[in-house]
Write a structure and sequence with these properties.
It is a single chain. The protein is mainly α. It is built from 5 helices and 2 strands.
Length: about 110
């Protein structure tokens, strides 16, 4: 069975048509992205066809909508469990002038 981390990588690769771009989005190396699918799926299905710089989904890999629904459902379950425990999670967008961001974020 694919785990949720593998689903995230799968969806990012499918979205970007690239293991490298998917790795950048998920803060993984290209090797870590590739390794997630090097052995294929537990059923042995090949999800991607690698070309020189891009990848294409195979027929088996075209299950993207179902994978996205599964990942979204799993995230909702996690949020529900955490909210029952009194923890609040979610996304927050913060806006600040560029000058202030550059000043406060320099190491």
């Amino acid at each position: 069975m694919l785990n949720l981390d593998s689903l995230k990588v799968f969806l990012a690769v499918a979205e970007h048509d690239s293991f490298s771009e998917a790795g950048r989005q998920l803060h993984l190396s290209q090797q870590q992205s590739v390794r997630s699918f090097k052995l294929g799926t537990p059923t042995g299905a090949q999800l991607f066809i690698r070309q020189s710089r891009t990848v294409q989904l195979t027929e088996a890999g075209k299950c993207c909508p179902m994978a996205r629904e599964l990942l979204t459902s799993a995230q909702r379950v996690e949020q529900t469990i955490l909210s029952v425990q009194g923890e609040v999670i979610g996304e927050m967008t913060v806006a600040a002038p560029r000058r202030q961001v550059n000043t406060c974020c320099q190491a």
